[in-house]
Design goal:
The complex is a heterodimer of chains A (about 300) and B (about 280).
Chain A: E1 6-8, H1 9-23, E2 27-31, H2 35-38, H3 41-46, E3 51-53, H4 58-69, E4 74-78, H5 81-87, H6 89-97, E5 103-107, H7 126-131, E6 137-139, H8 144-156, E7 161-164, E8 169-171, E9 186-189, E10 194-198, H9 202-215, E11 220-224, E12 227-229, H10 233-242, E13 246-253, H11 258-269, E14 274-279, H12 289-295, H13 300-310
Parallel strand pairs in A: 2-3, 2-4, 4-5, 5-7, 6-7, 10-11, 10-13, 13-14
Antiparallel strand pairs in A: 1-8, 6-12, 9-11
Chain B: H1 3-24, H2 29-34, H3 36-46, E1 61-64, H4 70-80, H5 119-133, E2 140-145, H6 152-163, E3 169-175, E4 178-179, E5 182-183, H7 184-187, H8 193-199, E6 203-208, H9 212-221, E7 230-235, H10 258-267
Parallel strand pairs in B: 1-2, 2-3, 3-7, 6-7
Antiparallel strand pairs in B: 4-5
Helix pairs in contact in B: 1-3, 1-4, 1-10, 3-4, 3-9, 5-6
Classes of the chains: A alpha/beta (about 300), B alpha/beta (about 280).
Chain lengths: ~300, ~280
């Protein structure tokens, strides 16, 4: 894994937007004064006539996005995940979700790896909020390769999507050209002792934890759950049936996110023991991303320890 | 239509509103009645629309930002021929296309699902931007309540509309002065309305919202808009046309009983006909 390229999923987003701008003449990109950070500035440079900065007004960002979408545009509207899903939740719910508008809420700087900005900017609630909206597809890519590929799928499909993107650079776990399907999770490593179901940047940590476990003779299956909704229930049920226990890993609250979604499936179809790695019921703070991941229990070692607990 | 014909249609629409809300047993008659003249003038005179082809390219669009006065929009659409008038008596019933607040996927002619205040005008900013991008001639009309102006989102949208010079966007404020808890100035002052919009880069017109000639002329003036969005502030009376409801905040969201409904319909010059 030492040779893996490291790139933030938001970088992949900016690149994907420029690629897709040529392919989709009705693609419109919007931002709320964070285009340099969210990387929508790359699209703005390439297609200035199809970019709208709505200023520091997230509610109107998503309301106007809905208006453009019902007028036939494909809209990718970006800001930080905290303000997209928190500030504008009800606009996304009513003007985008209820209308099933073709708006892609592509939100960056999710989770604890926002780092130094601190608790006000670190959202752990976004996946929980977005997956409760009927008809909303929820995507959380783990690396830049999957981010780019999944963003193409998101723009190709009709209807609202939430795409969670990160600030921090992450290892590339996929080879270019890998075929992704929304709603179909990928098994990145086979194993029948335990299943680690991870999403977003925690997938790289799941892989690292699996290697450490393998050294001790424990074979962990690692699943990249890049789509939180619709959830790949089959792969979860299979994991529950074929392994002794499940560990979920996410850079998100353990309340309402991937862990909860997996538990909802498992309790109904194949009850098994689950340990959840994620942000506990607490706010974050300022610090370096890696320091914060360690302090708040979202590292490869936390996944390793969770496996030890559950087995 | 002549002014007199428009006035007659407005009365017919008011009768429909009373009957709709009577059958539903709930709903919002007060603000439906206050904005009935403006909405009649839009649907029967000013807007370029086609009931046979609700998705006609380049059409004008109307968004009911004050989505709770759905009975008014439904009555106007039905009378204009978008769907049968009999459907109006299904308002708010289980399985009806006529939801308590409008749903764009159920009702032909409804351009945007609304109900949560402030969101309609915000989506209109996107629609107007799209028409500009595509060089489409259609204008976008949003009807707002005066109480709705208390929503911060209205001013985010107003700022963006001014910034992007959306002269194809018209906001109409139904200024009846009343909201659920009482008078605007007692709940939360919204005046001066024109000065607020103007400071965000809009042009403004203040009219008597029950004078059909003034209403028609104001809407006609929107064709000449250049470089700025326009707000038409229509001074109205809540419950206009039905004396028991006029200027009464209590009739914001309450259905009349049969006796009251029948008297209201007759006062408006309509025929009760068992409420149909």
């Amino acid at each position: 894994m030492e040779n893996k390229i490291k790139k933030a999923t938001r970088e992949a987003y900016g690149e994907a937007l420029v690629e897709m701008g040529a392919e989709f003449p009705n693609l419109v990109v919007m931002d709320a004064d964070l285009s340099g950070s969210t990387k929508t500035s790359m699209f703005k440079k390439a297609y200035p006539d199809r970019f709208f900065n709505m200023g520091i007004a997230e509610a109107n960002l998503y309301g106007a996005a809905a208006g453009l979408a019902v007028s036939g545009k494909i809209v990718c509207a970006s800001t930080f995940a905290m303000f997209a899903t928190g500030r504008a939740f009800e606009i996304i719910r009513n003007s985008i979700g209820y209308t099933h508008a073709n708006v892609k809420v592509c939100a960056t700087h999710a989770g604890i790896t926002v780092g130094e900005d601190g608790a006000s900017h670190q959202t752990f609630e976004d996946l929980a909020l977005m997956r409760t909206i009927p008809g909303m597809t929820v995507v959380n890519p783990c690396d830049s390769v999957s981010a780019k590929a999944l963003l193409h799928k998101v723009v190709e499909m009709d209807g609202p999507c939430y795409v969670r993107l990160g600030r921090a650079a992450v290892e590339n776990l996929y080879e270019e050209g890998y075929e992704f399907e929304l709603g179909k999770a990928n098994v990145l490593r086979e194993g029948n002792d335990v299943a680690i179901i991870a999403t977003g940047l925690m997938v790289q940590d799941a892989m690292a934890a699996a290697e450490k476990l393998a050294d001790e003779g424990i074979q962990a299956r690692v699943i990249d759950m890049h789509t939180i909704k619709p959830l790949d229930e089959d792969i979860i049920i299979k994991a529950a049936q074929e392994t002794k226990a499940i560990v979920t890993a996410e850079e998100h609250s353990v309340i309402g996110g991937l862990g909860s979604a997996v538990a909802e499936v498992v309790t109904k179809h194949a009850p098994t023991r689950i340990e959840m790695v994620g942000q506990k019921d607490t706010f974050g703070e300022s610090g370096k991303p890696d320091e914060l991941r360690e302090k708040y229990g979202m590292t490869a070692n936390d996944i390793y320890m969770a496996v030890k607990t559950v087995l | 239509m002549t002014i007199q014909e428009l006035e007659q249609m407005a009365s017919k629409i008011r009768v429909d509103i009373i009957k709709e809300v009577y059958h539903a047993g709930s709903g919002h008659p007060g603000g439906s009645l206050s904005a009935a003249d403006v909405v009649t003038a839009l649907y029967f005179e000013e807007m370029n629309i086609d009931p046979e082809n609700p998705k006609m390219e380049g059409r004008d669009k109307f968004v009911l930002s004050k989505g709770h006065v759905a009975p008014l929009q439904y009555a106007a659409l039905a009378e204009r021929g978008f769907f049968p008038v009999e459907d109006l008596w299904t308002l708010r019933k289980l399985g009806s296309k006529l939801q308590g607040h409008p749903n764009m996927h159920y009702v032909p002619g409804v351009e945007m699902s609304t109900g949560s205040l402030g969101q309609g005008i915000s989506t209109c900013v996107g629609m107007a931007l799209a028409n500009k991008m595509d060089k489409k001639p259609g204008r976008v009309f949003a009807l707002l309540g005066d109480g709705e102006l208390q929503e911060g989102l209205v001013w985010e949208a107003a700022m963006a509309a001014g910034h992007y010079h959306l002269d194809n966007l018209v906001a109409i404020v139904d200024w009846n002065g009343l909201q659920i808890d009482g008078k605007n100035e007692e709940v939360m002052t919204v005046t001066p309305i024109a000065a607020k919009f103007e400071s965000f880069g809009w042009d403004s017109l203040i009219i008597d919202g029950h004078n059909m000639l003034e209403v028609v002329n104001a809407l006609k003036a929107t064709r000449e808009a250049e470089g700025k969005p326009l707000v038409i502030i229509a001074k109205t009376h809540k419950g206009h046309g039905v004396s028991i409801m006029e200027d009464q905040a209590g009739w914001h969201g309450k259905a009349p009983d049969e006796e009251t409904a029948k008297a209201a319909v007759e006062e408006l010059g309509g025929v009760w006909n068992n409420g149909k």
